[in-house]
Amino acid sequence: MKFVADEGVDFQIVSKLRNEGHDVAYIAEYEAGVSDETIHTIANHENRKFSPGAYELEKYTEVKT
Question: Which of 12, 27, 33, 34 lies 20 to 30 Å from 41, alpha-carbon distance?
Answer without folding.
Answer: 12
